[in-house]
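Could you join me in thinking about how sequence relates to backbone shape in a protein? To get us started, please write out a protein record for me. Would you write everything just below, so we can both look at the same thing?
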Amino acid sequence: MLLVPAGQTNLDVLKSVRDQTIQALTTAVRGTTQNQALIYRDMVENDLLPNATAGELNTRFNNPNALVANTPGSLYQQTLPNYQAIGLYGYASLAASPLISMIQFKQGTAVLLAQYFLDALYADSSEVVGYFDTPIIYQPSQTASILAVASAAVGASAESFVLLGIVVEPAGQSIQPPNVG
């Protein structure tokens, strides 16, 4: 798994990764929603919200608790509803001096889906955004866990970053369908 700095990729590649993520998420939700085959117009996809409500995956993160050096600390853990899938395809640091050196994505607490070392991204001071070469996909009813590792102790809420991602679900669930009237 690679974290590719934004400056080392082009728009066509990014569009392709985003389209592949949407296709994988749509397939995941279509196959599990109340044992019914949904037609495409029933599905909506949107970017993850920057300020989601409690229980939803918020794209903007701070470490809620202090991080112990070289020890994974939990940023988020939530079981998705049976009608929703989430795909993550990028990372952007919001900190002037980033402190987190690695981010991990797990299914539940045991299954490691991916981990990305962030120091290479930070080494180029002009780069704060990186894209995953393969999106992290959380299927309906799976438990999404996101952890951070720092090489030194980090105080609570000292680090700030954004995860770039998409949520797909049937229209009318937590994302309202577009106004077509």
About this structure: DSSP finds two helices and ten strands in the chain. Residues 175-181 have pLDDT under 50 and may be disordered. The longest helix spans residues 11-30.
